[in-house]
């Protein structure tokens, strides 16, 4: 209710474990009138773990997201680097087939530090697995960490046909040079009113390709109370889109 009262149109919960799936069900019950949406469910697929377990949980997630007609937002992860590209592609293809059969989109989530780390680097994977139901996100914080803060228009143009669920936040300009990972993410993900990078460049990039879907405000890792930044970030975003 608090988020809706500010003007936000929906929420994206994590769905990595049974407890988070229970939380998703509570969100779904609270948003049943359709005025506030579940825009997606974010799943981290750890491919170095028991894949039978990973598949079983993903199937439960897909069944839950069907109730909200919400996409599966998928991060593929193997931080131990024990899987081959073929194994990773096989999992991605299975996710694409499962979501298409369920009637919900699959949206790939490039994540800096993982093997699909930027939107551009995701394109070969997306093209290989494409079944008419696979899309791709553009994330300001991950593109900044990869050094693409001055190329957002170019990146957005390359992924225009598949662009879904872009994420925005405040950030510092030079986070690509931050070697400390904890500090790097702290500086790469800030309230939209903070940081010295001009995040309106991201909004302009979305406008340049005619994107008209939801834009997700990324708040991962923020330590301040939500009430301290949700209002100001929403207002700042409205200023960016209205200019």
Structure description:
46% of the residues lie in helices and 11% in strands. It is an alpha/beta fold. It has a 4-stranded parallel β-sheet, with helices on one face. It has a two-stranded parallel ribbon with strand order 1-2. The chain has a two-stranded parallel ribbon with strand order 7-8. Helix 2 (18-30) packs parallel to helix 3, helix 3 runs parallel beside helix 4 and helix 7 packs parallel to helix 9. The radius of gyration is 17 Å and the shape is globular.
Which SSEs are present, and which pair or pack?
Blueprint: H1 2-6, E1 10-11, H2 18-30, E2 37-38, E3 41-46, H3 51-66, E4 72-77, H4 85-102, E5 106-108, H5 119-129, E6 134-136, H6 140-145, H7 152-159, E7 167-168, H8 181-188, H9 200-208, E8 216-217, H10 226-242
Parallel strand pairs: 1-2, 3-4, 4-5, 5-6, 7-8
Helix pairs in contact: 2-3, 3-4, 7-9
Features of the shown structure:
243 residues, 4-stranded parallel β-sheet, 8 strands, 46% helix
Strand content: 5-15%
Largest sheet at a glance? 4 strands, parallel
Alpha-beta classification:
alpha/beta
Low-pLDDT residue intervals, each spanning 5 or more residues: none
Helical proportion, percent range: 40-55%
Task: Give the strand order, joined by hyphens, for the main sheet.
Answer: 3-4-5-6
State the distance separating the first and last CA atoms.
28 Å
Cα-based radius of gyration, to the nearest Å: 17 Å
Anisotropy-based shape: globular
In total, how many beta strands? 8
Give the helices and strands as they follow along the chain: HEHEEHEHEHEHHEHHEH
Number of helices: 10
Instruction: Give average pLDDT, whole number.
Output: 95
């Amino acid at each position: 209710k608090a988020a809706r009262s500010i003007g936000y149109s929906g929420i994206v919960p994590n769905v990595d474990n049974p407890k988070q799936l229970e939380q998703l069900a509570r969100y779904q019950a609270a948003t049943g009138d359709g005025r506030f949406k579940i825009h997606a469910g974010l799943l981290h697929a750890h491919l170095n773990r028991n894949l039978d377990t990973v598949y079983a949980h993903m199937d439960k997630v897909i069944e839950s997201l069907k109730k909200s007609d919400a996409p599966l937002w998928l991060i593929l992860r193997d931080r131990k680097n024990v899987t081959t590209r073929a194994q990773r592609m096989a999992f991605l293809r299975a996710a694409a087939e499962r979501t298409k059969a369920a009637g919900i989109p699959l949206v790939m989530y490039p994540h800096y530090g993982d093997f699909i780390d930027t939107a551009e680097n995701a394109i070969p994977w997306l093209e290989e697995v494409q079944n008419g139901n696979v899309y791709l996100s553009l994330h300001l914080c991950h593109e900044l960490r990869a050094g693409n803060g001055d190329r957002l228009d170019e990146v957005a143009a390359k992924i225009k046909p598949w662009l879904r669920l872009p994420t925005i936040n405040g950030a510092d300009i030079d986070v690509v040079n931050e070697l400390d990972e904890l500090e790097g993410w702290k500086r790469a993900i800030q309230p939209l009113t903070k940081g010295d990078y001009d995040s309106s460049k991201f909004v302009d990039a979305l406008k340049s390709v005619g994107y008209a879907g939801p834009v997700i405000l990324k708040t991962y890792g923020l330590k301040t109370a939500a009430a301290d930044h949700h209002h100001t970030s929403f207002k700042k975003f409205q200023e960016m889109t209205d200019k």
